[in-house]
């Protein structure tokens, strides 16, 4: 996309967790986004019956640089064609409709996750990974599958990467990590007890920390040195949430990995070739 967007998705993601005054502003913007594009802070405060200070606080709650960035993102949203909401699968659906709906949900969450990822944060994360002696990844449940995928990718790229399914073994391995190691914590909610313990232990050891969570202020994203966000998804949460959230998390891991490969192509491509040759030889 040639324009910055994602403002409306960000507001929807955190609307129900905001303080009352900020929530009033969010509701006003979501109901009438177009006029906001040309408003000043004072005008938005008057229209939403709040205060200029509340507008500024909302921008901080969204982890944006200021009101101007929020307006730019909303302007980008207004330019985009509208799309239907996420929808869960019901009993007796046709295979044709399931394929269509799951494809739509997948495309939607990846597009929204693209809007949540700050380019400078991805760049810094890639640099920290390159400078690290080893990479320690952690996740529970579906997030654990994403952490395992990250491990195998960076192992093939010639890096020391650790992911252990047992949290206690992960803590044990992390307790021997050093300051020049990096921890990558994957948790959709950003509040998973084991993941919070993992990132706190990593910080206690002086490690650089990277989180991959849904958009919004969570314990894990607040603790992380670099917080990478996925869309929080608007789909029904009863059955298929892990499907879309996992896809979004994998997209972030792929983005980190491909950015790492691109930035350090000459050294990484040799490791990838060696790992491929080792696998091919084993097949034979």
TrEMBL record:
Coiled coil: none annotated. SUPFAM superfamilies: Homeodomain-like, SIS domain. Residues 125-266 form the SIS domain. This is MurR/RpiR family transcriptional regulator. InterPro entries: Homeodomain-like_sf, HTH_RpiR, RpiR-like, RpiR-like_SIS, SIS_dom, SIS_dom_sf, WH-like_DNA-bd_sf. The keyword DNA-binding applies. Residues 5-81 form the HTH rpiR-type domain. The keyword DNA-binding applies. Keywords: DNA-binding, Transcription, Transcription regulation. Signal peptide: none annotated.
């Amino acid at each position: 996309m040639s324009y910055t967007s994602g403002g409306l998705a960000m507001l929807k993601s955190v609307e129900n967790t905001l303080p009352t005054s900020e929530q009033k502003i969010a509701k006003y913007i979501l109901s009438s986004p177009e006029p906001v594009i040309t408003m000043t802070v004072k005008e938005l405060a008057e229209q939403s019956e709040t205060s200029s200070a509340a507008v500024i606080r909302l921008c901080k709650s969204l982890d944006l640089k200021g009101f101007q960035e929020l307006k730019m993102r909303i302007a980008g949203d207004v330019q985009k064609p509208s799309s239907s909401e996420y929808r869960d699968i019901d009993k007796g659906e046709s295979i044709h409709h399931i394929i269509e709906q799951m494809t739509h949900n997948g495309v939607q969450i990846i597009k929204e996750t693209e809007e949540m990822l700050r380019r400078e944060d991805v760049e810094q994360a890639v640099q920290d990974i390159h400078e690290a002696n080893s990479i320690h990844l952690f996740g529970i449940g579906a997030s654990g599958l994403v952490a395992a995928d990250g491990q195998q990718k960076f192992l093939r790229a010639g890096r020391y990467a650790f992911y252990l399914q047992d949290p206690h073994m992960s803590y044990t391995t992390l307790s021997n990590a050093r300051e020049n190691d990096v921890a990558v914590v994957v948790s959709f909610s950003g509040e998973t007890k084991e993941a919070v313990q993992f990132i706190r232990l990593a910080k206690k050891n002086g490690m650089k920390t990277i989180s991959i969570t849904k958009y919004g202020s969570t314990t894990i994203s607040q603790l992380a040195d670099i917080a990478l966000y996925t869309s929080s998804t608007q789909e029904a949460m009863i059955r298929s949430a892990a499907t879309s959230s996992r896809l979004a998390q994998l997209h972030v891991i792929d983005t980190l990995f491909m950015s790492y490969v691109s930035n350090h192509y000459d050294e990484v491509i040799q490791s990838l070739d060696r790992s491929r040759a080792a696998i091919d030889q084993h097949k034979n």
